[in-house]
Design goal:
- The structure is a homodimer.
- With about 350 residues, chain A is an alpha/beta fold.
- Chain A has three domains: about 15-60, 434 Repressor (Amino-terminal Domain) (Orthogonal Bundle), CATH 1.10.260.40; about 65-165 and about 300-330, Rossmann fold; about 170-300, 3-Layer(aba) Sandwich (Rossmann fold).
- In chain A, about 40% of the residues lie in helices and about 15% in strands.
- Chain A is built from twelve helices and eleven strands.
- Chain A has helices at about 15-20, 25-35, 40-55, 60-65, 85-95, 110-125, 170-180, 200-215, 230-240, 255-265, 285, 300-315; strands at about 70-75, 100-105, 130-135, 150-155, 165, 190, 250, 275-280, 295-300, 325, 330.
- The first copy, chain A, has a six-stranded parallel β-sheet, sandwiched between helices.
- In chain A, about 50% of the residues are buried.
- Chains A and B meet through α4, α5, β2, α6 and α9 of A and α4, α5, β2, α6 and α9 of B.
- The structure holds a DNA duplex (30 and 30 nucleotides).
DNA sequence: GAAAATACCGAAATGCTTTTCGGTACGTTA
DNA sequence: TAACGTACCGAAAAGCATTTCGGTATTTTC
């Protein structure tokens, strides 16, 4: 059987049970347990012993009802499968110590109706705030004005009165190209994913920023299609055929980069000696299992989640912000740009 | 600023506000809103209008306090990064309609102390039940007897008095090998991951079951090391050197299978014509991006999560079970075992 | 037209904790 | 000894919604 009853009296102990066992009033028991000082040491000891004996734990529901704060946040995401929400979720979850704040997870599956349902449920449960996580960095519709603070993470809100936190894709693109340049590359191409994604466009802007600052130009046109290994392979073949002189490739994602590496290998180009390749997202399972391992841009998503959670609670304490914050990204160097010793 | 106040009276409306506005008692307002029938139609209308006007939503905290049920479950996982917990989490999350039941997510990071903290927090919040999700299929320590039902998912509990739900790895191994046999293969090898994992050992048992039933024997020894592409590549090279006659390879994971495919390609063996390859886990991003796409065993993890959540609530209604349930797995056929037309 | 039944509504209890405030009992000061 | 202060404790309210049960007012029945 699913074990469900404590050995005790069948029911979880309440404060009044503790008080009775200790022979004091409920008020005194509460004070003793919460460390208030209007209680005699001996009494406190009796109460604590009683609480221990009954393995009493205060009912957070009653507590929250009174305090008006629940110590919970809702995390409303549009797709859990996505690789991006998970680190954000982790960051939000541990922004405070274990067990201090708890996260209600809601997956709307990209469905607006479902999202409204979840939203209502969260408000009914009196969450202290809500974090909305999108699956792309394109702006998403605002939830409007709610009785609790809302922070938009990854996908910013389309309303500048909301607070959004999103990775700085433009800086990422620039960082990638600057790294290739610092590795001595000057004939750099860009293979990216779906141009309908703001992420793809922003990263390209960053790439151009970096090239321009170095007085360089992109080799060929930026290549867009989908975020897949297959496209990476095909695009690399195309690129090498038209521009065999290329010596560095900035890829829009690690998946694309994996495909690019495959094709380079097939064509007998060695990485990073002949061509340096850099990915984007730093998706460990892809980046560390390729030959050679993949240099990539990491969007610091876990940090982003932490920041979002913190913002929710500082908003509660009335330090309110708005607009879109861009979270810095970082470069993770591996063998696809720097030869292994 | 983070938008936080409804345009209204600064405070969320309570039932008593509604009652006052409608000119009825609190009791009547409650009945009207909850569809109880001891209230006149005209009165009900007045109340509902008032509720609408104040955009009243009942406080779940108060409701739960009274009902003794919160409509929440805790999901205690040991690593969120893991690829396995996510589908389980999704399944648990949507086991009931949107917004009916909510999931508290807790990531213990594999730390027992942290797990205890989270557990305590969940119990304080009076969750109706707890789902414990491990990252491997090896048995994990039981949480012991708790005041709410507990279901162990993926990683079973080491205590048979608990209820555990885990994928049937042995059946998966057998299914994989049977599929290869049905594709006309008879010289089958097995490359797997870390033998410290029960998953690796169980899958091998299943592979042997399948071979034995067909009167076949494994080609060479089963090869164990780690769950990585690198190992898959190395192992395949070794295997082909010693047993060039091999015509089918059951891999312990999709990662390993990817590595195997790489090596086969390097060695000029075509897949699936010369050698058929099957992976395990059906990790989409790996399986659908390889050349050829990878046939794999899917553990139905989302279904597993749904089942776990359902079990928690049926346990509440006193239909209690124990022991370990094995969740069936399924075969997903792609190009690495059946030639594409 | 009187008795009984029905329909509708409200006071109050319930669930559990925290906090305020009033009250003993004891000791201290003049 | 009278007046006062201190230390400790408990009754009660607050937080919000649900439910029971008793009570009017209205209708039905004979």
């Amino acid at each position: 059987m699913v074990r469900t009853e404590s050995a005790g009296p069948g029911r979880t102990a309440t404060l009044s049970d503790v008080a009775q066992l200790a022979g004091v009033s409920i008020a005194t028991a509460s004070k003793a347990i919460n460390g208030r000082d209007e209680v005699a040491p001996a009494t406190r000891r009796r109460v604590l012993e009683a609480a221990e004996q009954l393995s009493f734990t205060p009912n957070q529901l009653a507590r929250s009802l009174l305090a008006g704060r629940t110590g919970t946040v809702g995390l409303l995401t549009s797709d859990l499968e996505g690789r991006f929400v998970i680190p954000i979720l982790m960051g939000a979850e541990d922004a405070f110590g274990a067990g201090q704040v708890n996260v209600f997870l809601c997956d709307a599956r990209g469905d607006a109706i479902r999202e409204q349902h979840h939203l209502k449920a969260l408000l009914n449960r009196r969450v202290d705030g809500i974090i909305v996580v999108g699956r792309q960095t394109d702006p998403r519709p605002s939830l409007g004005t709610l009785p609790v603070p809302v922070v938009y993470a990854y996908a910013p809100s389309d309303d500048q009165n909301d607070l959004s936190i999103t990775p700085d894709n433009r800086a990422g693109g620039r960082l990638a190209v600057e790294h290739l340049i610092s590795c001595g590359r000057s004939r750099i191409a860009h293979i990216s994913g779906d141009p309908a994604y703001a992420a793809a466009r922003d990263r390209l802007l960053g790439v151009r920023d970096g090239l321009q600052a170095a007085g360089l130009e992109l080799v060929g046109d930026a290549m867009f299609s989908v975020w897949s290994e297959h496209w990476g392979r095909d695009a690399a073949a195309l690129l090498l055929a038209q521009h065999p002189e290329v010596d560095g490739i900035v890829c829009g994602s690690d998946q694309i980069a994996r495909g690019v590496l495959d094709t380079l290998r097939d064509l007998g180009r060695s990485v990073p000696e002949d061509v340096a390749v850099i990915g984007y997202d730093n998706w460990e399972v892809l980046a560390t299992n390729s030959r050679p391992e993949l240099t990539s841009i990491d969007a610091n998503l876990q940090q982003l989640g932490r920041t979002a959670a913190k913002r929710v609670f500082t908003a509660l304490d009335d330090e309110q912000r708005s607009g879109t914050e861009y979270q810095p990204v970082r470069l993770v160097i591996r063998g696809s740009t720097i030869p292994r010793r």
